Amino acid sequence: MIRISDLTVAFGGVKAIDALTAELDAPVCGLIGPNGAGKTTLVNVLSGLVLPRSGTVAVDGADLLGLKPIERVRFGLRRSFQTEQVVEDLSVWDNVRALLDHVPHARGDAVAQVTRALAYTGLLDAATVLGHRLNLFQRRMLEIAKSLVGAPKLLLLDEPGAGLTEQEAGALRRVIGSVHAFCGAQVLLIDHDVDLIAATCTQTLVLDFGRRLALGPTREVLDDPAVRKAYLGTE
Ligand SMILES: Nc1ncnc2c1ncn2[C@@H]1O[C@H](COP(=O)(O)OP(=O)(O)OP(=O)(O)O)[C@@H](O)[C@H]1O
């Protein structure tokens, strides 16, 4: 559960997030809005890359803003970036294994955890392949696999579907839609692909100019005339 209260982030005179209050409690939540709406800024606040001017954010009851970025990772926060953070000269296995150096996990079960995450994301057969040899889809899956080891509580996925083929997007949908069943973590998904949001997210938050334009069940939100006008470009 993510509880955001009266959150404001300003870059000079621009309020990227403007007095935002929202409770996100679905296993997979969507975060959408037009370009510049504040989506990435919100994810940056959650992961600790940006400090808000005011407000609070709690995840599963814990005050997130009181934790340093590395403490948030230990707490169970995971994030994928629009540009994948793959170590190019490490194998797929070692890319995932490296995450476990930074987070708590039961001693000795690293092999089992990495194996399980790679199997879940379809990367087990590619475990020995070096990062620079992976295609775009495999890189996206590797980002998710890294998020799944070491007791994650919340996955922040920033446009994981961008540039994928329809078949790959289908596979991504299945992986994201089952993350909660796989490891119990909540997912906050930013994507411009409304079909991906509709297929995976039961609850969706829409931002516009840093403000909350809508929050609720995804189907209702996507049918909201104000959302259709601001985001989808239709009346
Ligand atoms: N580091 C920064 N310095 C100054 N302004 C910034 C910074 N980061 C974001 N902004 C501004 O804050 C606003 C929100 O940007 P943000 O990147 O969060 O939007 P977004 O919804 O993620 O957009 P997109 O869909 O294009 O990724 C924009 O007006 C942007 O120009």
| Series of H and E elements | EEEHEEHEHHHEHHEHEEHH
Number of domains: 1
- In round numbers, the mean pLDDT is 93
> How is the CATH topology named?
Rossmann fold
Question: How would you write the strand order of the largest sheet?
Answer: 6-7-8-3-9-10
Query: What fraction of the residues are assigned to beta strands by DSSP?
Result: 25-35%
Instruction: Work out the number of β strands.
Output: 10
Can you give the helix content as a percent range? 25-40%
Shape: globular
As an assembly, this protein is single chain
Unreliable stretches covering 5 or more consecutive residues = none
Compute the gyration radius: what is it?
17 Å
Look at the helices and sheets and give the structural class: alpha/beta
The biggest beta sheet is recorded as: 6 strands, mixed
Q: Helix count, per DSSP?
A: 10
Just name the CATH architecture: 3-Layer(aba) Sandwich
- Specify the CATH class: Alpha Beta
Distance between the termini: 32 Å
